[in-house]
Design goal:
alpha+beta
């Protein structure tokens, strides 16, 4: 028996940062993602976002690599969104994503950050905040690939 608790703050965006996740129907998408996460024997602590990106705080079952988890989640959500008439302009997800790990003591901080996305992004752009998060987590930004699709 192994014991793990790996909290991931994952951020992923729409292709070309298109504003296609409309607020009136975002909860449908969030519920779909919650179901996907549950089916992967993982736990969603919080989900939220903006019309062009989503933040999730989740643990991922230790048998699943985060890259596989994200590939499958984006693929499944993409198929669902393209069939859903409430998201008529959805064209796909960007290839990249950002994932940061946190410990249990930081869970409330990240949960509150995700909860307040709409207020937060009234003051800072997605690009600025993503740059800040990458730098805070010691990740070197390659400008050639940054926010490119």
């Amino acid at each position: 028996m192994s014991y793990t608790k790996l909290l991931y703050h994952i951020i992923f965006r729409t292709k070309k940062n298109e504003n296609v996740i409309n607020e009136a129907h975002e909860k449908e998408l969030y519920a779909y993602i919650m179901g996907f996460i549950k089916n992967k024997k993982s736990h969603l602590y919080r989900i939220g976002g903006m019309p062009d990106h989503i933040h999730i705080l989740t643990d991922i079952h230790p048998s699943i690599a985060v890259s596989d988890f994200m590939r499958d989640m984006k693929s499944n959500a993409s198929k669902w969104l393209k069939k859903n008439s409430n998201f008529p302009h959805f064209n796909g997800w960007a290839e990249s994503f950002a994932a940061f790990t946190y410990n249990e003591k930081e869970k409330d901080i990240i949960t509150n950050y995700i909860k307040k996305q709409k207020v937060h992004h009234a003051a800072i752009t997605f690009e600025e905040k993503l740059r800040q998060l990458l730098i805070e987590n010691g990740i070197k930004i390659d400008e050639h690939y940054f926010l490119k699709d």
